[in-house]
Amino acid sequence: MKQMMKRVINLVLAILANIWYRFPSRKITLIGITGSNCREATALYSHAILLQTSKNVGLITPSKQTIISVHIPDHLKVNSDVPNPFKLQRLLRELVYRGCKYGILTVSAESLHEKRLWGCNFTVTVLTNYNHQSGYFDSNEQHLHAKSKLFTKTPLVVLNKDDPSYSFLSRLTQGKRITYGIKNEAQIKAAKIQNGSWGSFFYYTNKESVWKNQLSIDRSIKLQDKNLDVVPCALAAIGIAAALNIPEFRIKKGLESV
Questions:
Q1: How much is the average pLDDT of 118-128?
Q2: What is the number of domains present in the chain?
Q3: CA-CA distance, 7 to 111, in Å (whole number)?
Q4: Which range of residues forms the domain containing residue 44?
Q5: For the purposes of burial, counting CB atoms within 10 Å of the CB of 219, is it exposed (0-12), middle (13-18) or buried (19 or more)?
């Protein structure tokens, strides 16, 4: 009963906030990233790639919030895991006001379940991975169902082919689907993975010509982070870039800059 009341209250707040701030997410390309791990690293890699195409990028994660690479003032910051709907829509309106072309937002299952993101018009949504770790939900099924709400109506969806949730989420998506992975066959797949004191290295494939009207280029990526756990995060960011048809040379430059 308590959770139901919270959902109703947040839904009303989100509706009022969208009306008050004139549905700001409709004015930008909004990217939503969810997952039990890796979502913040994916957001940072995506931010670095998008900065190669436009300086007008907004980033909203738990640890870093910027508009056009300038830190957001404290009075505008939101808790990106469970945002107050009015503060979130005000911040999205600020992105529009500052001329942002892209907005990147990390998304939690709790905020989806509580209707805090109602009215957010996502162009691209991404799943990094799924692990049931939250004490907020009673079961794995309830947790995964909450996450799935991010993907049902989005025109561009990026999914992890290696994750056990892939089969369930892929059945729900109605938009164009782009897959990535390391173990299983995917449109964007990493190979020749290695690391050392210099960082991490991998090569990715472009199966089924994910990019439109682009010639083959050097698809080797050398990341500054030597932890191989970041490779799936980089692949997810490549998937976002592919969904937006970002040129591959800009992807390489962006990923290798952080």
A1: 97
A2: 1
A3: 9
A4: 2-255
A5: middle
Phi then psi dihedrals of residue 56, to 5 deg: -90, 75
CATH of the domain at 170: 3.40.1190.10
Q: Which residues, at least 6 apart from 220, have a Cβ–Cβ distance to it below 8 Å?
A: 192, 201, 202, 203, 252
Residue 49: its H or E element:
helix 39-50
CB 258 within 8 Å of CB 234: no
The pTM of the full predicted model, rounded to 2 decimals, is: 0.95
In 3D space, the residue among 194, 142, 191, 185 whose CA is nearest the CA of residue 160 turns out to be 185
Whole-Å CA distances, 46 to 174, 244, 245, 251: 23, 11, 13, 9
Identify the three-state secondary structure at position 235. Answer: helix
Q: Which of 42-46, 139-143, 203-207 has the highest mean pLDDT?
A: 42-46
CA atoms within 13 A on the CB side of 123: 17
Q: What is the DSSP letter of 131?
A: -
CB atoms within 10 A of CB 155: 13
Backbone phi, psi, residue 233, to 5°: -65, -40
Residue that has been written with the tokens 């909004």 in this structure: 30
Q: How far is CA 83 from CA 13, 121, 205, 255, in A?
A: 11, 16, 37, 28
Strand 176-181, strand 156-160: pairing:
parallel
Strand partners, 165: none
Look-up: residue for tokens 């976002």?
A: 240
Consecutive H or E run containing 127: strand 122-127
